[in-house]
Amino acid sequence: MKRIYTLEDVCIGCHLCEVACITEHSLSKEPVKAFLHEQFRPISRCTVEELDGGVLSLSTTCRHCDEPDCLRACISGAIQKYDNEVVRIDTEQCVGCWSCVMACPYGAIQRNLTRKKANKCDLCPDRKNPACVDACPNRALVFKEGSQK
Amino acid sequence: MNYIIIGNSVAAVGAIRGIRKIDQQGNITVISRERHIAYGRPLISYLLGGQVTEKRMAYLPEDFYENNRINLLLNSEVTGLNTKKKQVRLAGGDTITYDKLLIATGGDPFVPPIEGMAGKGKVFTFTTWDDAEKMKGLSHDIGRVVVIGGGLIGLKAAEGLHQLGKQITIVELADRILSTAFDRPAGRIVAKKMKANGIDVITEDTVVRVEGNGAEISGVTLKSGDFIPCDTVIVAIGVRPAAAFLKGSEVEVNRGIVVNDSMETNVAGVFAAGDVAEARDFFSGQKNPMPIWPDAYIQGDIAGTSMAGGEKSYSGGLSMNSLELFKVPTISMGITNPTDPKKFEILTYQDLESNQYRKIILKGDLLVGAVLVGNVERAGIFAGLIREKIDIKPFRGSLLNADFGIIHLPREVRNSLFAPYGKVA
Amino acid sequence: MLYKSVNESFNEFFIARDDAKCIRCKVCVRQCAYEVHSYIEAEDALTEDNCNCIGCRRCSAFCPTGAITIKLNEENFKRNESWSGSHIRNLYAQADTGGILLAAMGNPAKYPVYWDHLLLDASQVTNPSIDPLREPMELRTYLGKKPHSIEVVHDKKTGKPRLTTKLAPQLKLEYPFIFSAMSYGALNLNCHKAMAAAAEELGTLYNTGEGGLHKDLYRYGKNVIVQVASGRFGVSEQYLNAGVGIEIKIGQGAKPGIGGHLPGEKVNDQISETRMIPIGTDALSPAPHHDIYSIEDLRQLIYALKEATRYEKPVSVKIAAVHHVAAIASGIARAGADIITIDGFRGGTGAAPQVTRDNVGIPMELALAAVDSRLRDEGIRNQVSIVVGGGVRSSGDAIKAIALGADAINLGTATLLGLGCTLCQRCYTGKCPWGITTNNAYLAKRVNPEIGKERLVNLIHAWGHEMQEIIGGMGLNALESVRGNRYKLRAVGLTEKDMDILGVMPAGD
Hints:
Number of helices of chain C: 16
Strand content of chain C: 15-25%
Strand order of the largest sheet of chain B: 3-2-1-7-19
Number of strands of chain B: 26
Low-confidence stretches of chain C: none
Number of domains of chain C: 2
Oligomer: heterotrimer
Structural class of chain C: alpha/beta
CATH architecture of the largest domain in chain C: Alpha-Beta Barrel
Shape of chain B: globular
Distance between the termini of chain C: 60 Å
């Protein structure tokens, strides 16, 4: 399946992947409305980290594992793997116990504290390519066929 | 091929998926002593407190059993096992023959013989959906509750009852609540929060007698001599593997059903997984029960795979727990209370005023345990470091950072996790 | 502004921020290399220090909501046709510091651009045009000494014609463009990787510049010209043999007559290794080569290099376009050079004194025409190929240069623009916000060599197609037919003398 991979050597630490992710998962899918005018701003599903003033930076996200640790830890069955590809959290079913946060070795699951729900990459089902990949100005995120590791 | 699975919780689900990945043809029969389809057992406290409705209790979509062609027998208890004839006997007397058997019966709550408890009406254990429903049904009659046991089950029960506005006292034998899963500072933070929210926590004590006339409860007497008035008692001391029905069979049962790394018991074709099993521990290599939800799934998956002829090996049980009480999240994993402190190195960070605590337990250059309170973001990265036995020497100094993440790991590790194959920029 | 000098407070640009569109993503804060933008956490507000803005437009390009516009500060001095705002501010800066003003890229001043006064022919009625989509169109060029005459015999064995004349070594270019010499040190390794890879894919060449050839780039040797400049940085026998050609750099158009200077701060471990100088030392290229004080010395060096490379590689000599360039070129040709490279006054640089960049040197267009005519008159035009650089901005300019006599064109500024440069002309600060002329590890990541390569390949493909259209439109099917063909040009708005030097007739004639 196609997955999102990271090329840290060309990441410029602009955080536009996070902006795009938040925008794409908002109601309006438009950045100004998503950030300033909607009631619940989503939290980003990709995480940008920086060290040494940006000399090292990278954006990481869910690997959509073949045998997801998060799915196995989830106590409510909210996390399932669909079509043997995308691993998705059913927000309605999630109870915010954070077992998935505890289990994911990639640190790919975020806690949405306002809604008390777990949050993670869903490979942007409404887009041809994930928003973060399209928004990256330097091709530090690529969407291509590949294995989990 | 006839597969029988005794039990219908997370280990059974893992096993069903494990079997069906390899064998789409074989018959699978699931026998459950409960009347519900597979449900998220830890959700029962949310059900009690009213945070989830019955509809959300189901662990799987409705069509799971149909799609996987499962013959599901609910409300059926297995009372005996004949390994020579390869038959399980049900409570009604029926027998069913198997080619491969998985015992995933989970745990039974341990109820110690406390003086005065027999015959009392409102004494509950708290391990099943029906327990939660019973308590909820009687909640108008419940005012003051004593919870015996300050472990995960006891605290979750207390949380659920607190949501219903009940008055609660927790009585714990050890010197702190959450004594097995967490350590003293974490336990203290949680206890403080509970007390601040009106839940009494009594440690280093235990209930020796339940007082009251007839079926009514008036209170409990503690070992220390103190008397606590209450009308309801919840026994939440712990669970024992539910293997009683195996008495007389050839299956080796220690504390739990002993299995090898393929989840097979000493009897060929008979497997065990989940809370009922006693499998290899990730650290010690010895076998012990590991009643942890994700381990149950993993064991079920391995058992199912092995039963269907596949090969998968258990890498060992790793304890991990996530608990949030009164908006303080806590996560623990691995070895959190090292018995021989000389062999282990402990790194700590705490800011108790803001309920922040982090403890890292190292053995040599390997991570073996972690406790996090407050900032639990991305705690799973530690689970990965433990499981993969990553050498933490290069980044030992960053482990306590609030923003410890992928970027602190060595470049080869980062790239092996996230870079596309064969190419780094 | 508080704590700033008067001159610093006269900012040329200012940030216009539409706060209603600002989502506080802080990409502007992160991307600005000059610390113009800052975020005030307590107020959740963005603010800016306009004095630092150099108008590179990176923040406005990256803002996800288009909230930022870079505006020219209309506040200016009283209008004065003699003393422009730039003149005044430059003078202030010198009064402030007592130092030489540095500048970067090419001369931006208002001197005539001859390309804008030359127009090309096309076929109408007689000599019909050729459709490049249907007919083959030859853009391929060979650089090197061409023989005075050739002898072809009929090979009795194969029955085919056979060339018996021995040819001097040639450089084959599929397009008449070379990525101009910009040193490793002035540009970072990501840019060099992009240029080398693009040259390989296109079938042209990339010039190392005076900073040597990084060891990771030796694999592109078939598409590399190595440069030997006055500082002799990185020059070893291995280096000389690494490419397919060698260029002796006497001068460059942006700073004729003076040397070069790479500040010690920019000399990191990799540059130190490639240039063969200690880490942190200034890399000073002296003004002359200290072993070339006459034309005979130049001949000696040319042949020393040929000896060292077994006469397998053409040797180019690069000069700035200055007075008497035709005579100088004639001397260079007779000294044994295979290629003469002429860099006009619009040529760029990473750092040069502003007074030199803006006042020294002559236009490449005139130099080219003069050199081409002189060599033809002396009957030695075939002994050298002419490569020119300095202000070619489009395929149109390129064809005109070829019509004036160029064999190939060096693209410097155009290459940097292809890599993302916005011509803010602050390369000397080492803070290039586009990650091009900086070795800062954080900023240099902004050039992704893969994207850079693709963009350069796209650019040359595009220009190549356009050139094929123009050549076909003239009824010709090979660049050879345009080369030195002044008749294909006409001039508009030039003086008699200009047209005389260019050898071009006025339009209408």
